[in-house]
UniProtKB/TrEMBL annotation, chain A:
Family: Belongs to the bacterial solute-binding protein 1 family.
Name used for this protein in its record: Extracellular solute-binding protein
Record flagged with keyword Lipid biosynthesis: no
Signal peptide location: 1-26
Cross-referenced Pfam families: SBP_bac_1
Domain of life from the UniProt record: Bacteria
Statement: the UniProt record of this protein carries the keyword Cell division: no
TrEMBL record, chain B:
Lineage of origin: Bacteria, Pseudomonadati, Pseudomonadota, Alphaproteobacteria, Rhodobacterales
Name of this protein: ABC transporter permease subunit
Residue intervals of the ABC transmembrane type-1 domain: 76-290
Assigned protein family: Belongs to the binding-protein-dependent transport system permease family.
Keyword Lyase: no
Cellular component aspect of the GO annotation: plasma membrane
Protein localization: Cell membrane
Length: 408, 299
């Protein structure tokens, strides 16, 4: 080989290497998600995706839930956002305001999996102007868990109305071992972050009550919050720790027998059955003040505007919302698949919890799709609810604080 | 007699120390003073993270808002309580422990090693552990008090606004007293035994020996340790954040926690920075005292 040939060969190799390196970096999808489950299927899904899409690699990072959005927003501002991530609907207005999202409409139109997505899910997760930035990946609807053995023992039936609920909660609050101390409380109320779903079921169900101007400060709105406060302050049917209780405390207390009812979704049903067997079941939340309201819990994926390779990111997120892959994803999260095929063949959850979810769908709602909702869920509601529970705010004052957030 | 003239120090010798020190100075400027200056600059702006395009200069508006904000004053009151109880409690417990560990007794080495454990554990682990101790349903504290007939029903220590702050103060006292114990133990060993022997010959009681020999001998250590701990305790938010997140309501809000919640959860970096700057100014007196003391020791 002459020197000239050697030089050419070296240059060609260098160019090829550079091209390969740039192709490799361009074809990497950095994906953020949050799983609490020990059984994390993500590496299996990544492996399957990479086998089906040679040339694309996925770096999936499990970010702790407690700081998930803090980190996401910060990374967007710092210019280090992931290419794609798991996102909730209440973050959509802020992400749009930050111009952080890539619209998906054009890609959705040409996607063969579109027909597979459950009816109405894409409508529910669209932005206020109808643009789609989110691709649904799982969903849940909240319902009322109750202890069948305790209800049977006292001759109670699952509560259908708020009055039934209150009477049942009072009856279930008792000293079961005769030591003079209450050891079972009627309802496990979540006074900490995330508890707005509990409050919403007992307050937002009431006729004419919502987040519109003056709706929460109306007589019906105030009566709803007063109903919650009375359950704690007068009837003492919540554990005394309720003002600070979060997800772990509420679920732990129900599984441990400290509470006889609580509100959550199918995501916790496997743990409930493991702890309580047939002694746990679920029904839709009670009708209160003329209506019913329960929370629709969403989780979607989105591509970020600064993604290195949007096409590769789209391939990855659409893979997660395709039959089989979506089922594998939801087996681990314990939530419900968004594809019709996976839903039709779904045997992961006990039927009674699937039934309670389906029965709750007609009155399932999302919180307002506006920027204020993040503040409502993260700070305004938890602080106001805690202050009301410990007697620092009245029901009217608490509702006025929320009304001011949305309407001032 | 002719005066001897000192030869001038060469320029290279004069410049060399500055050159050698400059990397450390530059790093300190970059990682300490630059963020501080940035925080002060942000405190003069309306800056909400999810509206990155609007970064409007508002002068002292954020500070004026803080002074009118009732939560600021609640947090300030809690911060004063937090410091005024925790630091003396840690110091007294540390002093008692150090005096005990300074005595001759079997397994003293093991006892000295064990006492460090609370200090060595991560704050988050300590916070989670004490959340379980205080738990209203399963916690050992309630169980113990109930069995001793000291209370008739479980107390939700962290969910009751009257007890939550003090429950966390107790946790932090437990975590921080080994620092004082170790510092004071070192100080005790630096006091010559002959002082005590002479005092004993003169007929001084144990209390007189403690007051006139031990305490003056420890004064320097106590002052330095207290100032240091005061600054740390004042800034400590991890234990509160894990145990109550500031709740119930504002019952366990302190100023650094309020600044953190505003900036990190509310994403309002302008107001959060203003709160942090206010707090830094309030703490500045103690920082200056510490720096003067540290400077004097070096001198």
């Amino acid at each position: 080989m002459t020197n000239k040939t050697k030089t050419r060969a070296f240059a060609a190799a260098l160019l090829a290497g550079t091209a390969l390196a740039s192709a490799a970096s361009a074809q990497n999808v950095n994906f953020w998600y949050h799983f609490d489950n020990a059984d994390n299927p993500m590496s299996d899904l990544v492996e399957k995706f990479e086998a089906e899409n040679p040339g694309i690699t996925v770096t999936a990072e499990n970010v702790p839930w407690n700081s998930y959005y803090d980190q996401l927003y910060t990374s967007i501002v710092a210019g280090t956002a992931p290419d794609a991530a798991l996102v909730k609907l209440n973050a959509l207005p802020r992400l749009i305001e930050m111009e952080a999202l890539e619209p998906l409409d054009a890609r959705l139109e040409g996607w063969e999996g579109l027909e597979e997505i459950q009816d109405n899910l894409l409508n529910l997760t669209a932005a206020a102007d109808g643009t789609h930035y989110y691709l649904p990946v799982q969903y849940v609807v909240l319902y009322l868990y109750y202890r069948t053995d305790m209800f049977e023992e006292l001759g109670l039936t699952p509560p259908a109305t708020c009055d039934d609920f209150r009477e049942a909660a009072k009856a279930l609050t008792r000293d079961t071992d005769g030591d003079g101390r209450i050891d079972t409380y009627g309802f496990g109320f979540r006074g900490g972050k995330g508890g707005h779903d509990h409050w919403g079921s007992l307050v937002l169900s009431r006729e004419g009550v919502g987040f519109g101007a003056g709706e929460l400060t109306s007589d019906a709105g105030v009566a709803g919050t007063q109903f919650v406060l009375d359950l704690f302050q007068e009837d003492a049917v919540f554990p005394p720790s309720a003002p600070n209780d979060g997800f772990k405390e509420v679920i732990g207390a129900f599984q441990g027998g400290t509470t006889a009812m609580t509100i959550h979704h199918i995501g916790s049903s496997a743990g409930m059955v493991e702890a309580l067997g047939d002694n746990v079941s679920a029904v839709p939340v009670p009708e209160c003040g003329g209506g019913r309201w329960t929370s629709f819990g969403d989780e979607s994926t989105a591509i970020f505007a600064n993604a290195q390779d949007k096409e590769a990111a789209w391939k990855w997120i659409s893979f997660l919302s395709s039959p089989e892959n979506n089922a594998a994803f939801n087996v681990a999260t314990g939530q419900l698949p968004v594809t019709k095929t996976d839903s039709a063949n779904w045997t992961v959850h006990e039927q009674r919890f699937v039934d309670a979810t389906i029965d709750s769908l007609p009155f399932a709602h999302l919180l307002p799709n506006v920027s204020e909702t993040a503040d409502f869920a993260n700070t305004v509601w938890p602080v106001a609810m805690q202050r009301a529970l410990i007697g620092e705010l009245s029901a009217a004052e608490m509702n006025a604080e929320i009304d001011a957030l949305y309407n001032d | 007699m002719t005066a001897t003239t000192i030869p001038p120090v060469p320029l290279s010798r004069r410049v060399l120390p500055l050159v050698m020190l400059s990397p450390a100075v530059l790093v300190t400027l970059a990682i300490v003073f630059l963020p501080m200056a940035q925080a002060v600059w942000m405190s003069l702006h309306d800056y909400v993270l999810f509206r990155p395009k609007s970064f409007d200069f508002v002068g002292l508006k954020n500070f004026a808002t803080a002074l009118k904000d009732p939560v600021f004053w609640i947090s300030l009151r809690h911060t004063v309580l937090w410091i005024a109880i925790t630091v003396p409690a840690q110091m007294l417990l540390g002093l008692a422990t150090a005096l005990l560990l300074n005595q001759e007794f079997p397994w003293r080495g093991l006892a000295r090693a064990l006492v460090i454990i609370p200090w060595a554990l991560p704050s988050v682990v300590i916070a989670l552990m004490w959340v379980w101790i205080y738990d209203a349903n399963y916690g050992v504290l309630n169980e113990f008090l109930l069995r001793m007939d000291l209370i008739s029903t479980s107390i939700p220590w962290l969910a009751n606004p009257d007890t939550a702050l003090y429950a966390i103060i107790l946790t932090l006292t437990w975590q921080g007293f080994p620092f004082f114990a170790v510092m004071i133990l070192a100080g005790l060993q630096a006091i010559p035994r002959s002082y005590y022997e002479a005092a004993a010959i003169d007929g001084a009681s144990k209390w007189q020996q403690f007051r006139n020999i031990t305490l003056p001998g420890l004064a320097g250590v106590l002052m330095t340790a207290t100032l240091l701990r005061l600054i740390w305790v004042a800034n400590s938010i991890d234990v509160i954040f894990v145990m109550t997140g500031g709740g119930p309501g504002y019952s366990t809000y302190t100023l650094p926690l309020y600044a953190f919640i505003n900036a990190r959860t509310g994403l309002d970096y302008g107001y959060g920075s203003a709160l942090a700057v206010c707090f830094t100014l309030l703490l500045l007196g103690f920082v200056i005292l510490y720096l003067r003391r540290a400077g004097r020791n070096i001198g």
